[in-house]
Design goal:
The chain is an alpha/beta fold. The protein is about 30% helix and about 15% strand. Helix 6 runs parallel beside helix 7.
């Protein structure tokens, strides 16, 4: 029995995406189902993709350089450490304008620091990430034309600063805004919990020693609410002038993701946010 399904054309054209026009992407990635999916995603955007097994990537790449020049280098590393082979791969003698991308999972130590020689990318790659990489091969492409969900049209990430000292709030708030965050403020742990319930932030910078409710107790309660599904997950960064091992251990045991000693430096806070949050501040974009 034949069936006819009615479809109504909305009048909207298919989204226009950039094309790499057949230029070559070299990807250092173990051969597995994930690598095949990533290869197809790049191919759909016009890339000629060459996958390299990490065990022989350097030798194979040096050999191919005699007859082939890539327009993109990608290294995917999920292990906590970056060995010399990864760094040597990203330092291959290709043209200076070739993007070099190190892709690592959220929480990887590499995300604590920025590099002037390669671009750090948190996994997984979003469609927008791949579109931006590809648009670099098509200078006339209008990036602003990328529709949702490819466009980065989401609101700025928000940072909740919990501190009973108004000077600390003002200083850290101003520095966070320079990094692209919208800022929320709370004077104590109880106030912080109420804000998290009504306006969940992208991340929390939590002072430890505060009146009414300290940061350790507030963190325990927030994590309990997240575990029960009342509040969405987000990283919590502990901060205290009491940088003793016991205090740091208590903060981590309560559920904080990391501990930073006061006085706070925005570079340290930004490094931890890059490591722990997809919405962390970026100092460079494609």
């Amino acid at each position: 029995m034949d069936a006819t399904l009615p479809f109504a054309w909305t009048g909207e054209a298919s989204p226009q995406l950039p094309s790499a026009h057949g230029v070559i992407a070299w990807v250092r990635l173990p051969e597995n189902p994930r690598s095949s999916v990533f290869k197809r995603r790049l191919q759909r955007l016009g890339w000629d993709v060459v996958l390299f097994d990490p065990a022989t990537a350097l030798t194979d790449a040096v050999s191919r350089l005699q007859t082939e020049q890539p327009s993109l280098l990608v290294a995917n590393e999920r292990r906590p450490s970056l060995d010399a082979d990864v760094m040597n791969w990203l330092s291959l003698p290709v043209a200076l304008e070739v993007p070099r991308v190190l892709a690592v999972p959220l929480g990887h130590p590499a995300l604590e620091r920025l590099s002037s020689t390669y671009h750090l990318q948190a996994l997984p790659f979003s469609p927008h990430d791949l579109a931006l990489l590809t648009a670099a091969q098509e200078p006339t492409f209008d990036i602003a034309s990328l529709p949702m969900p490819l466009a980065t049209a989401r609101p700025a990430p928000s940072l909740l600063i919990v501190d009973d000292n108004p000077v600390n709030q003002a200083v850290m708030g101003a520095m966070a805004e320079t990094k692209g965050y919208s800022v929320l403020q709370a004077d104590d742990g109880r106030h912080a919990i109420n804000l998290c319930l009504h306006t969940p932030p992208s991340a929390v910078l939590m002072d430890v020693n505060m009146p009414v409710m300290d940061g350790i107790e507030a963190t325990r309660r927030i994590r309990a609410l997240q575990k029960s599904g009342v509040i969405t997950p987000f990283p919590i960064l502990g901060a205290s002038a009491d940088a003793t091992p016991d205090n740091e251990s208590a903060c981590l045991a309560a559920g904080m993701d990391t501990f930073i000693a006061k006085p706070l430096m925005i570079a340290d806070v930004a490094a931890q946010l890059r490591r722990l949050s997809l919405d962390g501040p970026k100092s460079a974009t494609w």
